[in-house]
Amino acid sequence: MLKKKKEYAFDHLGQSINTMECPKCHTSFELSQSGLVCQNNHQFDVSKKGTVHFPLHHMDSDYDKEMLSHRRKMIQKAYMSHRRKMIQKGLYEPLETEIAKLLSSVSHDDLIVDMGAGEGSILERLATSHHVEGHKMGFDLSKDGVLLSSDFSEEAFWFIGDVTNMPFKSESIDVLLNIFSPSHYEEMSRVLKKDGLVIKVIPESYYLKQLREAFYYDDEDKKEYSNVKVYQKFIKDMTLVEEKHLTYDFLVEEEDFQDVLKMSPIHWGASETAKQRAHDNYFQKLTMDVKILVGKKQ
Fold this sequence. Notes:
Blueprint: H1 5-16, E1 29-31, E2 35-38, E3 43-45, E4 51-53, H2 62-67, H3 70-88, H4 93-102, E5 111-115, H5 121-128, E6 135-140, H6 143-149, E7 157-160, E8 173-179, H7 185-191, E9 192-203, H8 209-215, H9 220-223, H10 228-237, E10 238-251, H11 257-262, H12 272-279, E11 285-297
Parallel strand pairs: 4-7, 5-6, 5-8, 6-7, 8-9
Antiparallel strand pairs: 1-2, 2-3, 9-11, 10-11
């Protein structure tokens, strides 16, 4: 009989509960019949989908408010589905290979946490296609993303969580993955072990350039992207161990073109005219241009 998602979740939690703590009061967890309970009796239930919803901090930025508006929720849900389809078709295969190389020395007992995991495909592929070892957890602030991630309950434990307040004890995590996602370096440094690694992936200037050109053909500012501020923040707050520039072209099959157009937030701010123009102008290759940063806490 096939195991249920909830059963997989309890298996994962049983393996890693000693690394976790309550995000409300920062006391240790124990497993209860319904999920996790801390020493101050804060209870976090495991859902039927095998996920847990930890509390999120109040969002103040305009970006966060826009992301979490009703309209954006609907768009985001669709975008994550399109993104998953393309990832499963190998969109990030060379990137996954490079990350897997960096994780080749990870042992079975090490804890890998993917912060801002989206819909979970990259962590799942690292586990299944690239055979990366270790206990794996992934989280995102998007409920829809985590719900999609629950399809991969056998490979990892998934939860709704906040990068500024992770439910982990200090110096408990061996590897933090931070792939195209926001960072909070103070919190990352808190949860990382002394010899733990952060693997952060950021776009370079030509990343998805065909999408930028398609949706913002008449807006030079939006056609360009610079990662200078993100890079400088990383090397300021973390100790840079290694960096690598990776660029390649992904072949876009015509049958996948609409998924490609909608797999990134790039299209969110485009005009309807620009969206229609992009829809009508198929391109055969999509440029992937990224920087992989490997760091330790200072």
